[in-house]
Amino acid sequence: MKKTALDLVIRLDAADNTVLARKAIAAGTVIAGEGITVTEDIPLGHKIATTYIARGEPVLKCDTVIGYAARNVEPGTHMHNDTIRFDAVTEKLEFCRDYRPVELVPAAERRTFMGYVRPDGQVGTRNCIAIIACSNCAATVVRRIADHFTKDVLTAYPHVDAVVPLITSTGCGIEKSGIPLTYMRRVLGGAVKNPNIAGAVICALGCENNNIDAFLDEVGLTPGPMLRRLVIQEDGGSRKSVEKGIALAEEMLAAANGFTRQRVPVSHLKVGLECGGSDAFSGVSANPALGRAMDLLIRQGGTAILTEPTEFVGIEAAMVRRVKNPQVAQAFMDMMDWGRAYCRGTDSQINGKVTPGNNAGGITNVLEKALGSTRKAGSTPLNAVIEYAAPIRETGFVIMSAPSYDPVSAAAMFAGGANLCAFTTGRGSCYGGQHFPTLKISSNTDRYEIQEDDIDLNAGAIIDGDKTLEEMGEEIFEALIAVASGERTKSELFGMGSDEFVIWNIGTTA
Fold it and tell me: What architecture is domain 128-258?
């Protein structure tokens, strides 16, 4: 990336026939460094043609095809919805061609953080009690139990971060078997097993399709001192169940408070990667800077989890070239084929269109979005492709098959064992969780200044020319270690998380 004349535009690659507007540019403005005159008003972050592009010719960004000219285009033209046609880009699939094992930092030299070591050897970045609903029928009872444990109440337990409600809107009108119930139980069971959770109260009405005892049996959980069962129909109704739930959680608090932070290697960090409200700068600043941070983490033995395969369209060939083995490559392609079949005939981004917010931010189609989205994971090999909310057993770069709806994806990564989240945004996001601390990173300075109460770091400094990608990547890496050691993110300070836990409601609703 280099700045051009007057810092008005950003050229991402010498081969590109487009540049990005660093700021809003008025029609008639001369971009001397590119030798063009802008023919119409260009919004912040949007693309401008730098050469004549004939109809049907490829439009290039980062020396990558992001679509084809919908008509003959003159230099200085706004390149967006009316001038770029979406079409599939096909490349030869060369499994494992570019695979290179990661050179790990020697164990004795690895960075550390202060985490909660659990009896099974997992390490948490937070120490929470979870109150979990088996279905929507138990949602209000669960919320009332959790609401009892205010900051004032928890002052008696200084090593407990929060008592969190994990509430679902389904579980009753759901198929009695198959993928919907499997996914639901996998998410709820995985949440209990996550090292950020010291103990849990599982609450059910008693007659829902997600039967509490069948659920516990399927996911391999046995009630005990730090896992309690609460059934409204058995325990006297809603009011009495709230009272009992509070008492059960209180019994766990003293034991949970016995956990204190210990110094452990950063190889215990499993970072879920998210982006929401992306703009054209996301793929230039926040996402690649986060990717640099993940390269640092993975060299230290840590794990980075990427989701949202509906945003991988167009980069399949590049991805399979960096996989660990042909089995992982095939799993990646199978995941993409499943996603296309699942979304066939729908107006969803895997079929071309991005969200209205993405589009307003300068992203024209899913090809362009994929170009930026996948940069969050850095440059290391892809070691595994796993199902939705499945346990994350590989280290390094891993892909989980979870959709692009942020809270659904985040819940799945948490269930898989992720103990920290890094979330990039260009248009702005409020996502966060007490149980799943989330470091939010802005792609541009304007958004950071508007939403500073929600966003922790400003990668817009790259766009402004104040920091390099490497410098920003190191800042993100250090911030993740600080958050893992207990520093609160802005979403935690605001109290986010009670309504940001969402399960993929796939399949029939009866």
Answer: 3-Layer(aba) Sandwich (3.40)
